[in-house]
Specification:
CATH topology of the domain at 67-211: Rossmann fold
Number of helices: 6
Mean pLDDT: 93
Order of helices and strands: HHEEHEHEHEEHEEE
Low-confidence stretches: none
Bound molecules: S-adenosyl-L-homocysteine
Length: 221
């Protein structure tokens, strides 16, 4: 749970957050742990002040640099899929962006690593997560298509930008028994959100949903 008091977390937003959670339930999010965390996470702090009144709409919003904070339904869906068979101990997120997905994960999973290739976004999210007291989330500035080898293997990997094919490094850094949630495909609207499970000798793939993410880019910005 978020421990520290940050200016702007007020009761005014609690009612709108409750409404958002109600909507997520109606859309099929059933994991109480996910709903509880999304009810208490101040999404308005993760978007620009000018957009904070729209923070609890179930929609993606711009966060600058051509990037977006994911739609709450997608955050909930991906998180729900990630913890469905038990809470992973260590997760890697590729694409920190606003830090919102990382904040949700950090309230459910003991160790969260998240990488971002745009310096300004990385710096901003790191500051915000520290202010919120989410110290079990460690943020790195790097190209996440290479994963984060020094901390691998990961029990779970969540990718919040879409590559055309699943990066080989991420498959390798997934622990046996671990799972990856990743959107894959060219262009918007045609991406498939996949759940990939690593077994002893293969990777099993399950299609969860059709989604629209920003592309996974290579290199640092
Ligand atoms: N999880 C984020 C969603 C941000 S959008 C949130 O909750 O706000 C996806 C992010 O992935 C963008 O910030 C983009 O800069 C980042 N990204 C794209 N390609 C990347 C790469 N190769 N490595 C790390 N981050 C990447």
């Amino acid at each position: 749970m978020i421990q520290k008091r940050v200016a702007g977390i007020g009761m005014t937003s609690q009612r709108t957050r409750d409404r958002l959670v109600q909507r997520l339930k109606e859309e099929g999010i059933h994991d109480e742990r996910v709903l509880r965390v999304m009810r208490s996470t101040p999404r308005h702090l993760f978007v620009d002040e000018a957009l904070s009144s729209r923070a609890y709409e179930d929609t993606a919003l711009p966060i600058g640099h051509g990037q977006t904070i994911s739609q709450p339904y997608i955050v909930a869906l991906m998180t729900q899929a990630l913890i469905a068979d038990g809470i992973p101990r260590k997760v890697l997120e590729v694409g920190t962006g606003s830090g919102y997905q990382a904040a949700v994960l950090a309230q459910l999973i003991p160790r969260v690593y998240s990488v971002e290739r745009i310096r300004v976004l990385h710096d901003r999210s790191r500051t915000l997560l520290r202010e919120l007291g989410l110290n079990n989330a460690q943020l790195y500035y790097s190209d996440g298509s290479w994963g984060l080898r020094q901390f691998s293997p990961f029990d779970a990997i969540i990718v919040t930008a879409a590559p055309e094919v699943v990066p080989e490094a991420l498959l390798q850094q997934l622990a046996v028994g671990g799972k990856m949630i990743i959107p894959v495909g060219k262009g918007h609207d045609v991406q498939k959100l996949l759940k990939i499970t690593r077994t002893e000798n293969q990777y099993e793939q399950q299609w969860l949903e059709t989604v629209s993410f920003v592309p996974l880019c290579s290199g640092e910005d």
